[in-house]
Design a protein that fits this description.
Strand order of the largest sheet: 2-1-3-5-4
Number of helices: 6
CATH superfamily: Sugar-phosphate isomerase, RpiB/LacA/LacB
Structural class: alpha/beta
Helix content: 40-55%
Radius of gyration: 14 Å
Largest sheet: 5 strands, parallel
Number of strands: 5
Number of domains: 1
CATH class: Alpha Beta
Length: 151
């Protein structure tokens, strides 16, 4: 599975730990930055990850920042991206099963490195349940297409 990962300065350490863990776990990981703890703007990195997922260049994406809120907002601007801010293993599981989330957002101010690894692994290994949930995903896709026509 191809995973793209990105962060701002506040998510840097969490991203680095996740990246090492995912590579050791056998995932094909591409890091879009940032490459240090020097202050930077999260939209730059969030859009790189979201764009790669939206264009089908990656199966999934992971973003880290302090709260996860800004990165979630940016990622969800891209048609076909369903970014989920998850603080627990349960929320990560449900985001995949019910919402077919393809971008995981983790808040370094909420989850530590070990919890982030467990959340990410569960998220990456959980399948979309389909069924009634697929109908809702189709509804979201329809809304996205309609909004794209307004541009």
């Amino acid at each position: 599975m191809k995973v793209v990962i990105g962060c701002d300065h506040r998510g840097y350490e969490l991203k680095e730990g996740l990246k090492r863990f995912l590579v050791k776990s056998g995932y094909d990981v591409t890091d879009f930055g940032t490459k240090s703890k020097r202050s930077c703007d999260y939209p730059k990195y969030s859009q790189k990850v979201a764009r790669a997922v939206a264009r089908g260049k990656a199966d999934r994406g992971i973003l880290t920042c302090l709260t996860g809120i800004g990165s979630s907002i940016v990622a969800n601007k891209f048609q076909g991206v369903r970014a989920a801010l998850c603080h627990t293993i349960r929320s990560a599981t449900l985001s995949r099963q019910h919402n077919d989330a393809n971008v995981l957002v983790l808040a370094s101010g909420v989850v530590n490195k070990e919890k982030a690894k467990r959340i990410a692994l569960r998220w990456l290994t959980t399948d979309f349940a389909g069924g009634r949930h697929a109908r809702r995903i189709r509804q979201i896709a329809k809304i996205e297409r309609e909004l794209a026509k307004l541009k």
